[in-house]
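Protocol step 4 of 6: structure prediction from sequence.
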Amino acid sequence: MRRAMHIALYVLGALVAVFLIFLLTAVITDYRPAEREVLQDRSSISTANLSAAGLNNTLPDSLSILCWNIGYGGLGDDMDFFYDGGTQVRTSRERTQANIDGIIAEIRRHSPDIILLQEVDECSRRTYRINEVEMLREAFPDYHIFLGYNYRSFFVPIPLKAPMGRVASGVVLMSRVAPEEVVRWQYPSRFPWPVSMFNLKRCLLTATFRLADGSSLVIGNTHNTAYDTGGMRTAETRWLGELTARLASEGTHFIIGGDWNQFPPDYTPSAAETDDPHFTTVALDTALLQGTGRIAWDPSARTLRHLNVPYGPESVLTVTDYFYISPDVRTDCVRTIDLSYRYSDHQPVLLRCRL
């Protein structure tokens, strides 16, 4: 009896030690981004190459911008997801690679001037450590590419039976024209500790471009909180409204695109969209944006499917992907590209506009 108790205490002590080591490692390696961080170009384009090609850093008057949450190449039409009421953690390596190849081919087909991507993995277990940023760099050698991390954890311990493990992921902004500056802005929203060590740190990427008339255009890439724990999306929208109000007061044009994880104005969700206990989307509170711009979205199509089941006739579809544009930017069209969610749980959205 005494021997059994000693063994039990030893095992318990070992488990406690392992847990404390894990927690200490999580604290030491916790991603703590600065409020403002200037990003470096990850492309192979050099200033010398630009000069030799006779190119300049001025944006054209007419622009095409593609916005797409690519679901890290792991959320194609075959997937449900454990966090959203499904059962799966990741798809196969072969399907992940096929999804990424399909995403790249689709972007090539439209050849946009600006590309705004969300959920791009750099080295994550869920995508078999495929470096998607490097794949984009190689696939689009004429584009400048910038990555802003919003998810870095040495080990995500859920689900317990098959943990996600290491995650390194973020939002990517790509452009044919070299921006003057690209900044990662940390949103003020925070998950409580210790959850924050294993969850996303949401951010906005902004790229500043010079226009032919000497004015500036700021293009932003946003990916807002999905699983709100109390006012996080509100804090992000309020912060974004303050930023765009400041830009407007300076006479700077702006276009903010991304996955807002909120309904656009004048969108009426179904009961299935609002009653999902695992993934709840709310309406964007446009009052927090201070009236400095307008929302541009495609009312004829949906952009996101819920991940409680693989894609099919029973899938719940909604709209969370769109643009927020300053009044002086003229919109020619906003079109959701229907891919039947083959490569991602989101559909790409293409904006054509004039400055």
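Step 5 (inspection) to follow. Residues 50-54 have pLDDT under 50 and may be disordered.
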